[in-house]
Amino acid sequence: MKYKRILLKLSGEALMGEQKFGIDSERLGQYTQEIKKVVDAGIQVAIVIGGGNIYRGIQAEKSGIDRVQGDHMGMLATLINSMALQSALEKIGVQTRLMSAIQMQQLCEPYIRRRAVRHLEKGRVVIFGAGTGNPFFTTDSAASLRAIEIEADVVLKGTRVDGVYTADPEKNPDAQRYNNISFDEVYAKGLNVMDMTAFTLCKENNLPIIVFDMNMPGNLLRLVQGAEVGTLIS
Fold it and tell me: Which of 46, 60, 158, 205 has CA atoms 20 to 30 A from the CA of 78?
């Protein structure tokens, strides 16, 4: 196996499937099966999931809700997704722990770095909920931060596109996909991979990012086995 410990970043929108909002049980089931294959192969897996399928803090401002309040509402949305993912994983026999950056003792453990690492070492999937616990930070930033803290080998950003392109492939059919690209090239070309805070955290800590298509069955396992899947940014 190429990687021993990974951090998988999933967007909340990915859970919608073909729906307009909420959680699509088929998509959730597909993702959990993909994660189980990787866990069964002996890889340590941590997960951060967004909340955009339920609520987005930035949109809150348009409806007159204070930005900080809106971001906290978004954090709660990520916890709803995290709980759904935990339940779906445990249903298929994958031991899972949910840790939250905002304390909610009745629902999940508080985030404690050493405890998170211990869970991973014991083969449990660890889901980090509620982002960083701070407003103005995205779940991409939470993914980068947690990956660095737990000393993950790589951040795997599972999306619906199969990598980073010269332009948006959904709008421009002539867009070319990169197999490998450096952090500096991404900066120079203004490519949209993660928000700048998250991206800079990875760059400064030499943490590679791989952007790949999570909806393609088997992609996640092939990736951790060392196959060239998606775009590697390093």
Answer: 205
> Which helix (H) or strand (E) is 121 found in, with range?
helix 113-121
Q: How many domains does the chain have?
A: 1
What is the model's pTM? 0.95
Domain residues for the domain of 213 are 5-233
Partners of 96 in the β-ladder? 125
Q: For the chain, percent helix, then strand, then coil, each to nearest 5?
A: 40, 20, 40
Query: 129-161, pLDDT tens digit by residue?
Result: 999 999 999 999 999 999 999 999 999 999 988
CATH number at residue 109: 3.40.1160.10
Strand ranges for the chain from DSSP E: 5-10, 44-49, 96-100, 109-110, 125-129, 154-159, 180-181, 209-213, 231-233
Q: How many CB atoms are closer than 10 A to CB 217?
A: 12
Q: To which residue do tokens 């999931």 refer?
A: 49
DSSP β-bridge partners for residue 158: 10, 212
- CA 127 – CA 47 distance, rounded (Å): 5
Q: If residue 126 lies in a helix (H) or strand (E), which one and from where to where?
A: strand 125-129
